[in-house]
Amino acid sequence: MVDSSLDEARQNIDKINDEIVEKVDERMSEVLRIVKYKDENDM
Fold first, then answer.
1. From CA 8, how far away is CA 33, in angstroms rounded?
2. Residue bearing the bigger pLDDT, 22 or 3
3. pTM for this model (two decimals)
4. With CB atoms 3.0 to 4.6 Å apart as the test, which of 15, 24, 25, 43 could cross-link to 38 if both were Cys?
5. How far apart, in whole angstroms, are the C-alpha atoms of residue 31 and residue 11?
6. Is the pLDDT assigned to residue 3 strictly greater than 90?
């Protein structure tokens, strides 16, 4: 019983970690886009 709860908790953590990685990736893409825009427009 405890093992299944532990496995479920681990799966939830893995899912949340995947979501965090995805959000960080989106954010970094946005930051890089802004940096590129600034470089191209001498800002």
1. 38
2. 22
3. 0.69
4. 43
5. 30
6. no
- Provide DSSP, 8-37: HHHHHHHHHHHHHHHHHHHHHHHHHHHHHH
- Cα–Cα distance measured from residue 14 to residue 36, given in angstroms and rounded to the nearest whole number: 33
Which residues does 37 contact at the CB level (< 8 Å), separation at least 6? 43
**Cα–Cα distance for residue pair 31/37, rounded to 1 Å:** 10
* Mean pLDDT, rounded, of the chain: 95
Please give the DSSP secondary-structure letter assigned to residue 43.
-
The one-letter code for the residue type at 42 is D
Q: For residue 12, how far is the Cα from the chain centroid?
A: 15
Joined together, the tokens standing for residue 25 give: 């990736």
